[in-house]
Amino acid sequence: MNIITLTTDFGYRDYSVGALKGQLYRLLPDVTIVDISHDIERFNIAEVAYTLQGAYSYFPNKTIHIIGVNNELNPERPLLILDYNNHYFITADNGFISLFVEEQTPCHIYKVNLKDTCSSFPTLDFSTKVAQLIRLQTPIEEIGTPYQEHLHITNFLPKVLPNRIEGTIIHIDHFGNLVSNITQKLLEKEAKGRKFNVYFRYESIKNIGLEDIYLQYNQAEEKEIPEGNKMLIFNKLKYLEMTLYKSDPSSSRSAASLMGIKRGNTMSIDFI
């Protein structure tokens, strides 16, 4: 399949998305371009990783994914190609890979051979041309060289303490639900059968166990939870999120708006 996806923080007010697509069509007239999102919070690599974790695997193998977030280049932050699960990701060395790739999953990383990285719009000037080379079946080894020194960032990862997990809100979805960076796997590992309290800023859900966290929204209907009540759920990607049952962000009745929480705010779990 001749597909290229775009995930950026460019928004739609400016010319950036249009120029990026125009360049790709000029280089690859038969390509199919899919917008995953252009509403990523500015420079928010954690949100990019979360968004692509949810979307990329539904595309055919050999799909090329261009990432245009925090993409400025310099000698210490080169342009990279990530070959992962039969997909290609083009990104600056900005920490995305360390947040995106699952542990123990094989991947190959290449530093793109660029003579000059000077550009005010590197996604347009460089990433599109790398996508063209990949789509024309140029061997990756001719585009770049193997690279192991990519940036690892830890400030977006949960902190695990003896009786506490400190997390961060990495995404607020269309319904105003608060997605944390704490996974079901991590919580199950650390809970060890204990009850716990979950704190999202000033709001809390106390004295609960893993069995009290929903796996799908319709479980709330089965238990006849009133509309607007707080609930915790492990979402499709197995991240812990807080939601208000049948929330409505347009009327300021969502977890994010009622709690005044933004992306990047902290949350925590205290074990009893």
Distance between the termini: 51 Å
Low-confidence stretches: none
- Counting DSSP H or I runs of 4 or more residues, the number of helices is 8
Mean pLDDT: 90
* Rg estimate, integer Å: 20 Å
Q: What does the overall shape look like?
A: elongated
Question: How are the SSEs ordered, and which strands pair?
Answer:
Blueprint: E1 3-8, H1 16-27, E2 32-37, H2 45-55, E3 64-68, E4 79-84, E5 87-92, H3 96-100, E6 107-112, H4 122-135, H5 140-143, E7 144-146, E8 159-161, E9 164-172, E10 178-183, H6 184-191, E11 196-200, E12 203-208, H7 218-222, E13 230-234, E14 239-244, H8 255-259, E15 266-271
Helix pairs in contact: 1-4
Care to describe what's here?
The chain has 272 residues and is α+β, with helices and mostly antiparallel strands. 24% of the residues lie in helices and 31% in strands. The chain has eight helices and 15 strands. The strands form two sheets. Strands 8, 9, 10, 11, 12, 13, 14 and 15 form an eight-stranded antiparallel beta sheet that branches. A hairpin with a 4-residue loop joins strand 13 and strand 14. Helix 1 runs parallel beside helix 4. The longest helix is centred in the middle third of the chain and has 14 residues.
